[in-house]
Amino acid sequence: MVQPLSAITSKVLDCTLRDGGYYTAWDFPTTIIERYLDAMRAARVDVVELGFRFLRNEGFKGACAYTTDHFIRSLAIPEGLALAVMLNGADLLGEMGLEAALQQLVPESAETSALKMVRIACHFHEFERVLPACDWLKRRGYAVGFNLMQMAGHTREEVSRLASSASDWPVDVLYFADSTGSMKPADVCETVAWLREGWSGALGFHAHDNMGLALQNTLTARTEGVEWLDATITGMGRGPGNVRIEELLIELAEPRANLVPLLALIGEYFAPLKVRHGWGTNAFYYLSGKHAIHPTYVQEMLGDPRYGEEDVLAAIDYLRRQGGQSFRRDMLVSARHLYDETPKGIWSPCDWLEGREVLLLGAGAGVVRHRQALESYIRRTRPVVVALNTQSDLDASLIDLRVACHPVRLLADCETHARLPQPLITPVSSLPTELLMSLHDKQLLDFGLGVRSGRFEVFPQGCVAPNSLVIGYALAVAASGRARRILLAGFDGYPPGDSRNQDMQELFNLFCARQSVPGMVSVTETAYDIPCTSIYGM
């Protein structure tokens, strides 16, 4: 039931050092942590979640990844500020066993620890098996919260059943988390109603801001009777981040709150940190929220120079079709490659290329710089000229075929391809229907593409490549067509330090290592370790 705002007593929990730690490896300067704690006390925040307590110690992480009692005692804690940490439910379900894991993670009772609250984050499939941890923690004097992650997409029956299960244990607050940032206010209202079918205790809400609705959703949750509200400074948190606590506190209009220390800390530390790391929503996070895709996929891609805008869009579409609600590293790899391992195709390039010299035109500046020499060579020797994507820096009458395999790039270029006269080699059988409809008037040659890391295999009507780069696909077309020789022009390379150079080099190495493939040579300058000659000496 919706309650008047004046009748609702809200508890604000700030989890900046925990959720924001995904950007800093939970490594925050001690001086900043202590200023942050003072700012939280001045702003009248009820609970501060100092960080995680991870069970595993793999790779460097800062103090807020483990948040030990020893570390907490080293801090100057303002009087009256309650402290919490978060455990991962998965850590409690490992080989060690639940109680042993709890003993290692929470070795002190609340009597000796500065902590007052422990929260446990659980996926739906973990929740009921982790609930017994509540008894263990309550016996040691802690308030206990459970965070049900990835609430969006679950049914009424699932939600109400787990809420009923929680009622059998001494849980102090049951949180639901919009982990994918896909909820709208109506969804929040519905979820609260479903939870109330099985749970009468305190509720909490943890919002993500993929679609720019975190604050609105949080205020909606409050009007629906949700007492505990999560937020972070400037919204700092995984992916697009969370509710901005400075805005939530203004909305709650706590008359005794002093925001001056918080706003000063934002200006001096968190605002520059945001510029450096780039949390906050954007079109990619919006799309991931719309399709209930875990925001870590987007966060990882945006931090990887191998992904251009079209690659991120293509990966999001792939995850939409495959199901990306939970983050999996192997799924991210698959999303980057865009294609399954098994190629599907019906066109053989032998009739076009067998015994012929093939010139592949890339997008590098070398094509423009050496245009005259390249055109002269083509007119003299008549190789089969294959342009990658919409490369059009040479006389169009000299280009015989085009090749493209990136679905988003194809979609962006479909109008251009429709105007270009050359037939288009592309993995037709693996492309989305909506893309094929956009190319329905185009002559398409269906050469299949499968992607498998570390593999380069060529078949009569398709190939398996280590990635979905168009150059690998084009090389496979030439090899499958039994070309006499492959010439490359416009494969200059990316700037030094760009990780895409590594992907390209790996591809070239795998191709050259194969037996029974045509010889390959670049005729314009290239940064890659491949055979090179000069178009001017040919």
UniProtKB/TrEMBL annotation:
<keyword id="KW-0464">Manganese</keyword>
<dbReference type="GO" id="GO:0003852">
    <property type="term" value="F:2-isopropylmalate synthase activity"/>
</dbReference>
<protein>
    <submittedName>
        <fullName>Aldolase</fullName>
    </submittedName>
</protein>
<dbReference type="InterPro" id="IPR050073">
    <property type="entry name" value="2-IPM_HCS-like"/>
</dbReference>
<dbReference type="Pfam" id="PF00682">
    <property type="entry name" value="HMGL-like"/>
</dbReference>
<dbReference type="InterPro" id="IPR013785">
    <property type="entry name" value="Aldolase_TIM"/>
</dbReference>
<feature type="domain" description="Pyruvate carboxyltransferase">
    <location>
        <begin position="10"/>
        <end position="266"/>
    </location>
</feature>
<dbReference type="InterPro" id="IPR000891">
    <property type="entry name" value="PYR_CT"/>
</dbReference>
<dbReference type="GO" id="GO:0009098">
    <property type="term" value="P:L-leucine biosynthetic process"/>
</dbReference>
